[in-house]
């Protein structure tokens, strides 16, 4: 099916062909002919990225009577960003119909500017509910002639507490209007709105209810809490061309992860509720124009972010509810583009994958944590692709003779090896020492790591357990050195170390039993502890005397 088969006005067809729309997406193919040939209302179950703006926007433009200088269509959307995006899309689609006036009004911006824009009545008004009510109360908006009303991202509007505003607005519009409601999920409140305020609502779903976009692949990576950040970095390194969002659960976590990534040299920034509107706009713009590769964001702050072609969505921590997962992962895999949704989960969190799978009717594939060498290979291929795509500068020929002369004595293979070494030595050196995170997840034999039930019962009598490392008097180990080593490796001055015993080849020391995992993990991952093996001493309960803190 082609757009020209849908019965749209030739000016619309010409406008959309200019921006490269050729074939309608599934939601467009379903909604557009329905609106043009039926009077019934529509409930569209579709996420951002499915092309729903054009699905409701093209018939809206088609039905607009430009000679009537009244507001005929109203679009309600949850955020300022989404309003701006919808208005801009509508203006693009109607580029060949310059008489049509589209105005967007939303909170968070000086109302005076918007009041001025409304002096000339728009045919189409795009608004956030709160700001619209404000403008209605000031007598600046008249909804009496609205015959086409769209509720976009209705579930998000409800989440943001707009339900009363929406019903107030609905009641101010004529009962004869046609209503189109779009939502990624269908909570009971939405079903209620459809029941109470819509006529013969016809349901159109892209995929099934709450189902994630079809062109998204879902992966999970097993991690431990203590390794989460390292695993994230490894994944980011493995996808050098990534353009994606790392979702965190709290503002604190968002700030912390973004700051760490920036310090570690990633092209990342944070988007969260503590930013002022100008700061928020600046981050979003940088991300939108791809000057930023990685956006670390909370769910709330990312609402309405109008970015269309994310390669990846990473769940630093899985959200509590399935709807949020659907929204997050719907940001990748947009129209005709494959996307990846990758969740970092601990073995315990893996449980929630099952219930998400059930809700989205898709299965998650396990993903191994890439090894350092795999990252290097990926980065090399990425660099070579970029290299082969680079255009040759017209002035290059002036520099080439000198380069030929210097490189004359090298063979082709040597030149390739030298060039790659020049660029890749730092990365190879970094990864030479990097721990095999995947191996750490598979971990040493169980009894070495986790105290057995018997041990735990024994240890319950006391509160410390005994650890052993393969360094002793032969390695010049003494209590002071041991404490220095633990300090460097664990980096936690509050950790209390109990009795210490040093033999020729081994050192034994007691740590509080609730810190055993932390200490063992630190020894297994820290570069400072390279070559040192740590193990729990089986069947032994630690001594009681403690050395509080360390120098
Ligand atoms: P939406 O779901 O409306 O936010 O649209 C997502 C993106 O897909 C926007 O950038 C649209 O411009 C684009 N888009 C929508 N429909 C089509 C289509 N039929 N062909 C190509 N791109 C489209």
Question: Key terms for this structure?
Answer:
4 domains, disordered C terminus, Rossmann fold, about 550 residues, seven-stranded parallel beta sheet, about 45% helix, alpha/beta, binds adenosine monophosphate
What's the arrangement of secondary structure elements?
Elements (H helix, E strand, L loop, with lengths): L9 H9 L7 H12 L4 E4 L6 H12 L9 E4 L3 H14 L8 E4 L5 H7 L6 E4 L1 H9 L10 E4 L2 H6 L3 H10 L5 E6 L4 H10 L4 E4 L10 E7 L5 H11 L5 E5 L2 H13 L4 E4 L5 H12 L5 E5 H4 L9 E4 L6 H8 L9 E7 L4 H11 L4 E2 L5 H18 L6 H12 L4 H21 L4 H6 L3 H4 L3 H9 L2 E6 L9 H12 L9 E3 L4 E6 L3 H10 L8 E8 L10
Parallel strand pairs: 1-6, 1-7, 2-4, 2-5, 3-4, 5-6, 8-13, 8-14, 9-11, 9-12, 10-11, 12-13
Antiparallel strand pairs: 15-17, 15-18, 16-17
The protein binds adenosine monophosphate (AMP).
């Amino acid at each position: 099916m082609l757009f020209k088969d849908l019965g749209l006005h030739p000016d619309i067809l010409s406008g959309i062909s200019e921006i490269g729309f050729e074939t309608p997406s599934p939601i467009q193919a379903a909604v557009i002919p329905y609106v043009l040939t039926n009077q019934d209302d529509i409930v569209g179950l579709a996420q951002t990225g499915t092309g729903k703006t054009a699905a409701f926007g093209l018939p809206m433009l088609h039905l607009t009577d430009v000679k009537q200088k009244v507001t005929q269509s109203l679009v309600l959307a949850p955020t300022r960003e989404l309003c701006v995006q919808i208005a801009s899309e509508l203006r693009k689609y109607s580029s060949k119909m310059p008489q049509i006036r589209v105005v967007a009004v939303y909170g968070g911006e000086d109302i005076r500017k918007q009041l001025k824009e409304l002096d000339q009545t728009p045919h189409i008004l795009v608004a956030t509910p709160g700001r619209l009510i404000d403008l209605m109360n000031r007598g600046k908006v008249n909804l009496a002639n609205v015959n086409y009303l769209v509720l976009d991202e209705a579930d998000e509007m409800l989440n943001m507490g707009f339900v009363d505003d929406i019903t107030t607005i609905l009641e101010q519009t004529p009962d004869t209007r046609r209503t189109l409601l779009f939502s990624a999920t269908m909570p009971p409140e939405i079903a209620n709105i459809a029941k109470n305020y819509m006529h013969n609502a016809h349901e159109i779903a892209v995929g099934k209810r709450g189902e994630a976009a079809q062109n998204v692949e879902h992966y999970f990576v097993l991690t431990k809490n203590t390794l989460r950040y390292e695993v994230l970095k490894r994944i980011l390194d493995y996808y050098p061309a990534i353009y994606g969002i790392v979702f965190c659960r709290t503002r604190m976590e968002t700030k912390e992860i973004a700051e760490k990534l920036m310090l570690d040299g990633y092209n990342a920034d944070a988007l969260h509720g503590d930013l002022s509107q100008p700061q928020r706009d600046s981050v979003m713009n940088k991300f939108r124009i791809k000057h930023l590769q990685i956006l670390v964001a909370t769910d709330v702050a990312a609402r309405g972010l109008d970015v269309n072609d994310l390669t990846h969505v990473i769940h630093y921590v899985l959200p509590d509810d399935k709807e949020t997962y659907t929204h997050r992962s719907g940001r990748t895999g947009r129209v005709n583009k494959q996307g990846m949704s990758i969740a970092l989960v601990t073995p315990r969190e893996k449980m929630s994958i099952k219930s998400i799978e059930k809700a989205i009717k898709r299965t998650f594939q396990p993903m191994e944590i890439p090894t350092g060498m795999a990252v290097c290979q990926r980065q090399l291929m990425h660099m070579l692709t970029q290299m082969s795509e680079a255009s040759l500068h017209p002035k290059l020929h002036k520099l080439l003779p000198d380069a030929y002369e210097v490189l004359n004595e090298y063979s082709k293979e040597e030149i390739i090896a030298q060039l790659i070494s020049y660029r890749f030595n730092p990365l190879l050196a970094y990864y030479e020492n990097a721990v095999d995170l995947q191996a750490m997840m598979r971990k040493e034999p169980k009894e070495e790591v986790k105290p057995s039930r018997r041990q735990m019962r024994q240890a319950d009598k006391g509160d410390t357990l005994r650890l052993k490392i393969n360094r002793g008097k032969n390695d010049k180990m003494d209590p002071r050195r041991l404490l220095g080593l633990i300090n460097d490796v664990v980096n936690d001055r509050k950790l209390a170390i109990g009795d210490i015993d040093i033999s020729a080849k081994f050192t034994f020391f007691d740590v509080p039993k609730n810190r055993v995992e932390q200490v063992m993990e630190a020894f297994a991952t820290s570069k400072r502890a390279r070559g040192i093996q740590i193990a729990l001493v089986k069947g032994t309960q630690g001594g009681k005397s403690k050395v509080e803190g360390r120098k």
